[in-house]
Amino acid sequence: MDTKFNSPKGFGRILDHSFSLGKNNFAPFFTVFLIFMGPIFLVQAFIKLLSGAAFFKGSGEGDFWFEQTIMSFEDTPANVIADLGISLVSFLGIFLYPLALGSIMLMINHIRKNETFTLGQVMKEVFPRYGYLLASSFLFGLISFGSFFVPMFFIGIVGVIGGLIHPVIGVILAILMVLGTMIGVGYFLTRWSFYFGPVILGEEPLGFSKSWKMTKSRAWVLLGLYLVFFLIISSIIYSVEFSLMILLGNSVFVTLVSGVVTLFTSMIFAVGYSVMYYDLKLRFEAEDLKDLISEYNVRP
C-alpha cells in the first residue's frame, strides 16, 4: 500500500494529500472528467454560438468599453429553444458525473495499493457498477431534497405563526430554526454522503449503511472538510468567471473557459472526496480488526 494511505490522517493532512495527489496525477484525473463531462460544456457552447452570441468578446450598446461589456448580457438574442437545449444538456451531466467520480475513486484505489492501471482498464471497471451508482446517487438526491424541503416548510409555518404574535418573534424563531436545520441536515447528509465508495468498490449495492457506520466519530471533521473544499472551489470558479465576464462579456469563449474551470474544480473535489473516503475505510477496517482481536482474546 502507498505509505500515504497506510495511516489515519487529520484535517490538514487530508487536504495536503488531496492536493498533492491531484498534482501528481493531474493528466489521468483531468482526462477522466474531460471524457465524461467535457462534451457537456462543448455542446452548451455550440448551442450558445448558434443562438447568436459572439465567440470571443460580447459587445453591446454603449459609449465605453465597460458599458458595452455589461450590455452584452442584455443584448444577446433571446432564444427559448437554445435555453431549453442548454438546460437539457446540463441535466444529462447528472447521469455522467457518477462515471467520472467512480473512475477517480478506482484510480486512487489502484494508487493506494501500488497497482498499475490504464484509463481503459478503469473504465471497464466502472461501467458494470453504473446502475448501482446511478440508483444510489438518485436516492441520495431525494434524501437531500427531502431533508431541506420538509424542515423549511415547517419553518415557514412556524415563522408565520410567530409573526402573527409579534414580527420580532417570528424573525428570531425563523433564524434559529434555519440555523438548527442547516447544522442538523449537514450532519446527517455527511453521515450518508460516503455511500459512493462502498458502491464503486462492490462492497454494498447502495452503501448508505456502511457510510453511516464509517462516519460515526468523524462527521464534524468531514463536514468541515466539505466546507473548506466548497470555499476553495467557489473562490476559483467565481474569480475566474467574474474576471472573464468583465473582460469579454457574454461570449462563447467565456462559456468554454468556465467549463474547463468547472472540470478542474470537479476533479479537485473528486480527489478530496476519495482521500476522505479511503481514510474512513482505513479507520473503519482497523476498528473491525480490533473488535475481532478483542473477541478472540475473551474466548475461553
Keywords:
300 residues; mainly alpha; 0% strand; 12 helices
Summarize the SSE layout with pairings.
Elements lengths: L10 H14 L1 H11 L1 H13 L14 H11 L4 H33 L6 H8 L3 H36 L1 H26 L3 H5 L7 H7 L4 H30 L3 H47 L2
Helix pairs in contact: 1-12, 2-5, 2-12, 3-5, 3-12, 5-6, 5-7, 5-12, 7-8, 8-11, 11-12
Explain the overall architecture:
- By secondary structure, the chain is an all-alpha fold.
- It is 80% helix and 0% strand.
- The protein has helices at 11-24, 26-36, 38-50, 65-75, 80-112, 119-126, 130-165, 167-192, 196-200, 208-214, 219-248, 252-298.
- It is globular, with a radius of gyration of 23 Å.
- The two termini are 35 Å apart.
- The model is unreliable at 62-66 and 294-300 (pLDDT under 50).
Quick recap:
With 300 residues, this protein is mostly helical. Helix content is 80%, strand content 0%.
Radius of gyration equals: 23 Å
- What order do the SSEs take from the amino end to the carboxyl end, as H and E? HHHHHHHHHHHH
Which structural class is indicated by helix and strand composition? mainly alpha
| Unreliable residue runs | 62-66, 294-300
Q: Taking all residues together, what is the mean pLDDT? A: 81
The percentage of residues in β strands lies in under 5%
Helix content: over 70%
Distance between the termini: 35 Å
Count of alpha/pi helices: 12
Dominant shape? globular
Number of strands: 0
Largest sheet properties: none
